[in-house]
UniProtKB/TrEMBL annotation:
This is Transglutaminase-like enzyme, putative cysteine protease. Keywords: Hydrolase, Protease. It holds the Pfam family Transglut_core. One of its GO terms (molecular function) is peptidase activity. GO terms for biological process: proteolysis. Residues 148-208 form the Transglutaminase-like domain.
C-alpha cells in the first residue's frame, strides 16, 4: 500500500540560522520523494544525515528572509523491521531530557510494579489514555513527563513522554517515534512510543487518534529532543506556518489497542 505524505514549513529567518529538519520518511520507506528549501526563487543547499535507526535528517544554513520548506513522498511499508542494536534496550531504559523515568519510578512501581512487561505494555498506555485529556495548547516545549502526570493534560508528545516514562520506570525499554499518521485529526506530525517486549519493538499510542498499522516512520529516539521536526542550532528562525498531510492509499484499518503492532 502506498501512503502519500507531505509537509510544508514557513519560516521567518531573522538572523542566519543553522537548522535541522526531521520531516523525511525514514530510510527504506520512500518509493519517491521531493524536498526543497527556498527563499523567494532561490534554492537553499541541504545536507542529509542518517542515524543508526534510519532517521534521515536534513541540515541547512538558512539565510535571512522568508524560507519555505516543502516535502512530499510516496511511502511504502518496508518488509524488514527498523534497525535496532543490542545496546538499544539498555539505552531506552535510561532517563532522558523529557522522560525523567527515575523521578517517576516510585509512582510507577506502586501502580504497575506487580505486572509483567507484556502486561504493562497494555496497562500503561491504557492508563494514560484514560487519565490524560488531549488538550491542544495545554503544554509547552520544555514540559516533561512529570508535567503531564501532574496536569493530566497534553498533546501527542506529552502522551508519548508519559507513556515512555512509566514504562522505563517499571523496567520496560521505551523509545519515541515521530510518524506521519493517516486519519489523525487534527492533522500534524505525530509522536508515539515503541516498547521493547518479547524481543521486539511494539508501537503503542495512548492517544488512540489514528490506526497504528497505517503509521509511516520519520524519526526514532529517546524523546522529543531526538525526534523534533525542527531544531534551530544557531541564529533565529520563527515558525510561522505548518501544514502536514498523510493519506493512506487504501481504507484506514481499524485499530485494536490490545493487538501487537510493529512499525518497520
Amino acid at each position: 500500500m502506498t501512503t502519500h505524505v507531505a509537509a510544508r514549513l514557513d519560516l521567518r529567518v531573522e538572523s542566519e540560522a543553522e537548522a535541522i529538519f526531521s520531516i523525511a520518511v525514514a530510510q527504506g520507506w520512500a518509493a519517491s520523494e521531493e524536498l526543497s528549501l527556498t527563499v523567494g526563487a532561490r534554492s537553499v543547499a541541504v545536507d542529509e544525515l542518517v542515524d543508526d535507526h534510519g532517521t534521515r535528517l536534513r541540515r541547512a544554513t538558512l539565510p535571512v528572509g522568508d524560507v519555505v520548506v516543502s516535502y512530499r513522498a510516496e511511502a511504502e511499508r518496508p518488509s524488514e523491521p527498523a534497525a535496532s542494536g543490542v545496546v538499544d534496550p539498555l539505552r531506552y531504559l535510561r532517563p532522558s531530557r523529557f522522560v525523567p523515568s527515575d523521578e517517576l519510578a516510585a509512582t510507577a512501581l506502586s501502580w504497575f510494579g506487580g505486572a509483567s512487561p507484556a502486561e504493562n505494555v497494555r496497562r500503561i498506555p491504557e492508563w494514560v489514555f484514560t487519565h490524560v485529556s488531549y488538550t491542544p495548547g495545554s503544554s509547552g516545549p520544555t514540559d516533561t513527563a512529570i508535567h503531564t502526570l501532574l496536569s493530566r493534560r497534553g498533546v501527542c508528545r506529552d502522551y508519548a513522554h508519559l507513556t515512555a516514562g512509566l514504562l522505563r520506570a517499571v523496567g520496560v525499554p521505551a523509545r519515541l517515534a515521530s510518524v506521519y499518521a493517516p486519519g489523525l485529526d487534527p492533522m500534524d506530525f505525530h509522536a508515539v512510543v515503541e516498547a521493547f517486549v518479547d524481543g521486539r519493538w511494539e508501537v503503542v499510542d495512548a492517544t488512540r487518534l489514528a490506526p497504528r498499522t497505517d503509521y509511516v516512520r520519520i524519526a526514532t529516539g529517546r524523546d522529543a529532543a531526538d525526534t523534533a521536526f525542527l531544531t534551530t542550532l544557531s541564529g533565529t528562525a520563527v515558525l510561522e506556518g505548518l501544514e502536514v498531510m498523510a493519506v493512506a492509499g487504501d481504507d484506514l484499518s481499524a485499530d485494536d489497542p490490545t493487538v501487537s503492532v510493529l512499525l518497520p
